[in-house]
Specification:
Keywords: Signal. This is PEGA domain-containing protein. By secondary structure, the chain is of the alpha+beta class. It folds into 2 domains: 31 residues; 107 residues, Immunoglobulin-like (Sandwich). It has a 5-stranded mixed β-sheet with strand order 1-5-2-8-9, with no helix packed on it. It has a 4-stranded antiparallel β-sheet with strand order 4-3-6-7, with no helix packed on it. A hairpin with a 5-residue loop joins strand 8 and strand 9. The longest helix is centred in the first third of the chain and has 25 residues. The termini are far apart. 17% of the residues are buried.
Length: 156
């Protein structure tokens, strides 16, 4: 059987090469995009609130008969709320404010206290917090999908 020779012009060689490269790029696209997916950030320790931002220092001083209560502002990647300060209230008195990734430790008498948080856009949200040395005394400040602040008690 005689062999056939096909003549390919330079223009069609370029077109074939471009088509092959395009096909390879399309096949590799899911792999490339998979590497771009947002991954959760690595856990980092919370930073303490700087002393100059403590408005009522009596709440942050340890003492006999007082129980440590840790209030943390969870980290977020959401830039809409990341840079908002969140004033923190104990029993109606503003004590400090929390920025993204910060925490403050209050020393409170055992019993029921009100821990409140707010932003410039939110009313004060209060949590009825039972302080007891037998429990984990930690609260978490977060923002919901509508960018509203909230606070809840969390396990350690």
């Amino acid at each position: 059987m005689p062999s056939r020779v096909f003549r390919v012009s330079f223009g069609s060689q370029r077109a074939a090469l471009a088509a092959a490269l395009l096909a390879a790029a399309v096949l590799a696209l899911p792999l490339a995009l998979g590497g771009c997916a947002e991954e959760p950030s690595a856990p980092m320790p919370f930073k303490p609130v700087p002393a100059e931002r403590i408005v009522k220092p009596g709440y942050t001083q340890p003492g006999e008969g007082l129980v440590a209560v840790d209030v943390r502002r969870e980290r977020t990647r959401n830039v809409i709320v990341k840079f908002r300060d969140a004033p923190v209230y104990i029993d109606g008195e503003q004590v400090t404010d929390l920025m993204d990734g910060e925490h403050v430790t209050f020393y409170l008498k055992p019993g029921v206290h009100r821990i409140g948080v707010t932003t410039q856009f939110d009313p004060v949200v209060e949590l009825r917090f039972v302080v007891d040395p037998r429990y984990t005394n930690r609260a978490s400040v977060t923002f919901d999908k509508d960018h509203r602040i909230g606070i809840r008690r969390v396990a350690q």
